[in-house]
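Below is one such record:
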Amino acid sequence: GRYLATGRFRDGGWSGMGPALFAYRPWVDASGTPAAPGTHLEAVPLLLYESSQASEDIVRSLVGYQHPDEWEGGVWVTTAAGKTAVLFAGTKGIGDKYWYGYVNPAGPEYPCVDQDFVGQFTVCRLADGSPCPASDLTECSGHNDYRGWWSSAFAAQFILYDPADLADVAAGTLDAWEPQPYAVLNVDDYLLDNPAGIEIDLLGSGAQRHYRLGAVAYDDANGLLYVLELFADEAKPVVHVWQIQS
């Protein structure tokens, strides 16, 4: 058995168009012999969507995927009644359009692409993944210097997967890009939302505020889910706690 799991997420789809999860073990045999320093541990992908480096199209992705998505932490949740789920927390792009470039001073509904990259890749897309009209492929005036992937709106979300789907991936009966969340929870109403106004140019504001959630942890014995809200106490995070019911 592989008792540990790890993963990563990078905006732009470099690590896959959705969260990634790999199962592994830190020992090399049935006796529990630790791996030697520098050993490459074998890992089994449980969740791995298509990479943007392999496909320019939004395919084999998380449903509703956008390039500005941010998935920062994940946990295996088990309730007192024995129900289980794999939960990821992050800041999800949910806007009608998303683009590579800058925040547009005219408003979140207006893209502001980096003109230098127009023609190199699809710098602006609609929510369904199709390209934006040509009228959106212009760099606005008066923007700041914080270039990256932006959506016209973000939401702080938990997404929950059925562990049975991930087990099917490990068994080879599902492809690693096939599992999808069975539930999505928007938790923005519980957040402080950068009350000190730290790094507005970097973080965005209002509907375009990203970097909302950070790492997560789960207290299995007491059913407590701990989630970091980033930039909630000036530059420091605040820990939110949810009681998971059975």
Q: What stands out?
A: The first strand starts at residue 4 and ends at 6.
